[in-house]
Every structure is written in C-alpha cells, then in structure tokens.
Amino acid sequence: MLIPLILPLVTSTSTNSSTPLLPTPPMGFNNWSRFMCDLNETLFTTTATAMRTTGLQAAGYNRLNLDDCWMATSRLPNATLTWNTTKFPHGIPWLAAQLDSQGFLLGIYADAGNQTCGGFPGSSGHEALDASTFQSWGVKYLKLDGCNVDPATEETYRHRYGLWHSILAAEPPNSTMVFSESAPAYFAGTDNNTDWYRVMDWVPQYGQLARHSTDILVYVGAGSAWASIMNNYDYNVLLARYQRPGYFNDPDFLIPDHSGLTLTEKKSHFALWAVMGAPLIISAWIPGLDAEVVEMLTNPRLIAVDQDALGLQATLASRGVSAGVDVLTRSLQGGERVVAVLNRGNGTVKVEVGVERLGLDANATCEVQAEDLWDGRRVEMVQGGKLVVEGLAAHATGVWRLTLSPGCAPVVPTGIVFNTASGRCLTARDSRVVFETCEALDAQVWQVTAQGSLRPLSDTARCLTAASGGSLGACRGDEDQKWSYAITGNLKNAKTGECLTEGVELVSDCLLEANSQVFGLPSGVALV
Length: 528
Ligand SMILES: *[C@@H]1O[C@H](CO)[C@@H](O)[C@H](O)[C@H]1NC(C)=O
Ligand SMILES: *[C@@H]1O[C@H](CO)[C@@H](O)[C@H](O)[C@H]1NC(C)=O
Ligand SMILES: *[C@@H]1O[C@H](CO)[C@@H](O)[C@H](O)[C@H]1NC(C)=O
Ligand SMILES: *[C@@H]1O[C@H](CO)[C@@H](O)[C@H](O)[C@H]1NC(C)=O
Ligand SMILES: *[C@@H]1O[C@H](CO)[C@@H](O)[C@H](O)[C@H]1NC(C)=O
Ligand SMILES: *[C@@H]1O[C@H](CO)[C@@H](O)[C@H](O)[C@H]1NC(C)=O
Ligand SMILES: *[C@@H]1O[C@H](CO)[C@@H](O)[C@H](O)[C@H]1NC(C)=O
Ligand SMILES: *[C@@H]1O[C@H](CO)[C@@H](O)[C@H](O)[C@H]1NC(C)=O
Ligand SMILES: *[C@@H]1O[C@H](CO)[C@@H](O)[C@H](O)[C@H]1NC(C)=O
Prior knowledge:
Elements lengths: L26 E4 L1 H4 L5 H13 L2 H4 L3 E3 L26 H10 L3 E7 L15 H11 L3 E5 L8 H17 L7 E4 L12 H13 L2 E3 L13 H13 L10 E3 L12 H13 L4 E3 L8 H7 L2 H7 L8 E6 L4 E7 L5 E7 L5 E6 L13 E5 L5 E4 L4 E7 L4 E8 L9 E2 L2 E2 L5 E5 L2 E5 L9 E3 L5 E3 L5 E4 L5 E4 L8 E3 L5 E3 L5 E2 L6 E2 L10 E2 L8
Parallel strand pairs: 1-2, 1-8, 2-3, 3-4, 4-5, 5-6, 6-7
Antiparallel strand pairs: 9-10, 10-11, 11-16, 12-15, 13-14, 13-16, 17-21, 18-29, 19-20, 21-22, 23-24, 25-26, 27-28
GO biological process, one term: carbohydrate metabolic process
Protein name: Alpha-galactosidase
Organism: Aspergillus saccharolyticus JOP 1030-1
C-alpha cells in the first residue's frame, strides 16, 4: 500500500480558492494545422461522429474548436460578428447545439486586434459584444489570437487581454468560457526574453491556457514536423513554473496524421505533451486516423498522466546535449511519479537513470516499481536502483509511472537548474559553481530541500552559498545557503537578498526577468 507523500506544491498565483474553470488540460479537436481555412460545418459534424466511433470521445476528447476563417468577411450592420454561410449553412448556434447533443463542447476563435491573422474582422473595440455573441451561440471556449494588435507592445496586449478577462469573468452565471490566450506567442523568439516573461506573468491570471510560442507546423507546411515539435517542446520547458491546476502552458496542437512524422515521432509528441500536462488538442482528419494512432491517442495510462489533478508540468531531471537525451519527471497525485526519457539523437541509445535523479531515495527500505505506460508492463526497480532503458530508438520516448513503497523517504525536488535564456546548466566544480552546457552530469543535477538549499548529486554535503564570487560550501543550513524561487524565475538568497546570476558574478542585485536571472528549477519547488 502506498502512503501518500507530503509534497511541496507549487503555490497558486490566484487568490480564488474555488474549483478552477479548467482543473486539468483541455482535450479535443481543432482544424487549423490540418485544414487551415478549409473548414466547414460538415468537417465538424463528421469529425464529431468519428470522435465517437473511434473512442476518442470516451477517452476524454470532448472539445471541437473552430480556428480562424469561420467568419464572414465583415460584421452585420449592427456590428455583430457572423459566420460564412457557405461554410456554415445552418449557422454556429446550430453547430453548437448539434455538438452539445452529442456531449461535445464548441470552441471558437477571435482576435484581439483589428483583424484576425487570416484577415477577418478583429474584435478590438467590440469585446463585450463579441463575448455576449459567443455566449449566446453556446460557445464554451475562446481562443483569442493576437494578430494586428496596434501598437504591438506588451502594455497593449495586457490591456486587450485584461479587458476580455474582465468581460468573460463578469458574464452571468459566472464565466463558463475557457479563455485561451495567444498573446505570449507574439513576444517569443527574440534575444531578450523580458517582454515574453512579462506577458507570461499575467496570462495565468486572465485565462486558462496560453499559446506561448510559434505555431506547430501545418499539414501543408514546408519544413520538418519533428523539428517543429522539438521547437515547441523546448519553449514549453522554459515555462514550467507558471503551470498549475486552472492554468496550462500550451505548446500547440497534436498533429498525428502529419505525413512527415514516423509513428515513433508521433508517440514521442504525445508522451511529451502528456508528461508536461499540456492541452491535447488534435489537429488531424479524424475519420482517416490509423488504428495505431487512435490507440496511441486513447492510451488511458498517458491520458491519466496528462489529466493528473496536481496539474504540474514535468521538468528536466537531466539534459545531455551531446547525447541528445532529456529525462523529465514530476509528481502525480497520490505520491506516484512519472518519468519520460526522450532520445533526440539520430541513433539508438541505452540510458540509465538513477532513482536519486528522479527525487527518490536510493535506500534499502525504498522499493520502486515502474509501469511502462506504452504497454502497461511492470518492471521491478531494485533498491538503490536505476531505470535501465535499453534500445531507445532515435526520436523515441520511453515513459513510466513509478510507485514507491512505504519505506521511501519523501520526494526531494531534483533536476537541472538552468538559465532559460542561455540554456546552460548550473554546474558544481569542487568548491565553485559555473554555467556549462548541460551534459547530464551528477554535478548538474541539484536537490532542492524544503529549507531552500541546493546541493548537487555529485556532492550532497555541499550547498550553493551566496559568498563573494559565489561558491559551494559545506552545508550548514545558514541563511546564505537558503534560496527562494519566484514565478519570475529569480532564485533569491535569504541572507544577501541578491539573485543567482549567469554572468561575471554568481549573485548580483535582483532584476525583473532579465535574461541572466531567469532559471528553470525542478517541479515541486515551492514558489514564493
Ligand atoms: C468541407 O471541408 C472539408 C475539409 O476541408 C472538404 O473536404 C469538404 O469538401 C467541405 N465541404 C463543403 C460542403 O464545402
Ligand atoms: C480550420 O481552421 C482554420 C484556421 O482557423 C480555418 O481557416 C479553416 O477554415 C478551418 N477549416 C475547417 C474545415 O474547419
Ligand atoms: C465564404 O467561404 C467561401 C468558401 O471558402 C468563400 O468562397 C466566400 O467568399 C466566403 N464568403 C464570405 C462572405 O466570406
Ligand atoms: C444583430 O443583427 C442580427 C441579424 O439581424 C440579429 O440576429 C442579432 O440579434 C442582432 N444583435 C444585436 C445585439 O442586436
Ligand atoms: C486598429 O484599431 C484601433 C482602435 O481599436 C485604431 O486606433 C487603429 O488605428 C487601428 N489600426 C489600424 C492599422 O487599422
Ligand atoms: C458565481 O459567482 C458568484 C459571485 O462570485 C458566487 O457567489 C456563485 O456561487 C457563483 N456561482 C457558481 C455556479 O459558481
Ligand atoms: C530587455 O527588454 C526589457 C523590456 O523591454 C528592457 O527593459 C531591457 O533593457 C532589455 N535588456 C537588454 C539587455 O536589452
Ligand atoms: C540528427 O541529424 C540531423 C540531420 O542530419 C542533424 O541536423 C542533427 O543535428 C542530428 N542530431 C543529433 C543530436 O546529432
Ligand atoms: C531510508 O528511508 C527511511 C524512511 O524515510 C529513513 O528513515 C532513513 O533515514 C533512510 N536511510 C537512508 C540511509 O537514507
């Protein structure tokens, strides 16, 4: 029998303690990546039918979301938005009712600016009217894009999305409209991440999910679909600290019928999104999905991980840039853990993951059992053991759920501490620390104790110490070895009030979301 472990939980930035509108990530369909503007009513009704017959609906995929291009080219004379009657001859309210009668929820798309990305009417200046129009149509989910916002500053986006938030929150009988915000995507991918993080600071307060980076490759797009998946995965990894029940980072759609992907790559995409607790919104021709793809998408073990009530996002236990291997882990409700091993390299690899890298104690009284989430097979992990992954193919992801015996000590948040701008890892070097390329070294995997000390697995008797020049001293539990982690990514020292910095000095005056001071830490570290 398991004893539930007391884990430090990420504190919510919301003051509202009631059940959030979206306690777990949304699951469903959106037509954009697959069909772009070729959408119509038939596509949606046919997709709904296929989602029932394939078992996708029963597995939890209950949303069908329209993307851009559903609108007529102009508003009605009374300024109300309306649909293209060629594409939607029966109208959107009819479609919403059809879907509702089959147990699905309809989602819609609008734009915060003057025009949508596809050139249809924007909602700027019409926010209240459009919100009440969508409510009256029976729409339950709004993706608000951010094309043609003028001027394109962080302040303007904050104002527009904040306006939508206040309108949606005020709609009687309380908002039931899930609000997906595309704002951060308009600030991603520059050399200076500060504005991107400033947008990330408010999106969790205004809505339930945010598209934070570039669109995943569309079906007809030029380029590598796998590279696109890895690109969006890499952005998501930078933002784990923001995620909590009620708010989810959105690395964009699943594209499981993309002809540029192998089955192995599709499975990696699905497993990574599940361990990160990402939205599972499929953009594909559902009636044409292969049986093996349907089996993947309906895998109950991975869906349970995605929908886990803790709402955590898995973080990097280790990253080996040369080998191309990422190991991700997080806690699940009930004291279990999930671990995923991704092979980004071009050849088959063998990977061994010591349990201490997963935050577990390698001690004689602690037994860890692993369930392979692809096939449900159970693997015994011996005490002081390792998860041994043989023959992990190029671009494959292995994924396991770990069950801990009652003799196991509470989980200690463990993993890399990395600068989210440079990607470099905090690395122990004797009595010093430096920032180096992440190479899955024990000197780069840190335990973060409940008291806020950080110690490398290579030498757990030493702790990160805010001394001049920064150092690694014998752990004493003094104030200069206590650090607090903020949602801004700052790691601040209790004694000096200074922040960890990648630069000439290891600590310096705290700055708000400057590239040199925004760090990714293991999931489970409490935020101040
Ligand atoms: C609806 O859209 C689908 C997918 O793009 C297309 O195959 C079909 O011909 C369209 N139907 C109509 C009536 O336009
Ligand atoms: C799919 O979504 C795109 C993007 O929003 C839209 O332009 C297109 O019309 C949609 N197609 C269908 C068939 O729904
Ligand atoms: C409606 O969509 C059809 C098919 O894509 C297009 O030919 C037509 O111009 C659109 N009409 C309006 C009013 O936007
Ligand atoms: C706007 O006009 C349409 C079409 O006549 C009507 O259905 C709708 O109720 C009107 N909306 C408002 C807010 O008056
Ligand atoms: C966009 O709309 C705003 C009002 O919401 C207006 O002030 C601005 O001039 C418009 N910009 C363009 C390029 O049309
Ligand atoms: C709606 O909000 C009001 C005021 O915040 C609250 O008293 C009420 O319980 C809420 N109703 C539901 C159904 O959540
Ligand atoms: C980064 O952007 C922020 C916000 O726009 C700005 O205040 C800061 O000076 C920029 N930093 C650098 C190094 O350019
Ligand atoms: C795998 O091969 C691709 C294409 O040749 C190359 O761009 C990439 O760097 C390789 N990846 C690794 C981890 O070696
Ligand atoms: C092993 O775990 C038990 C249970 O938490 C703990 O009391 C004990 O101190 C641990 N032993 C070692 C060597 O870590």
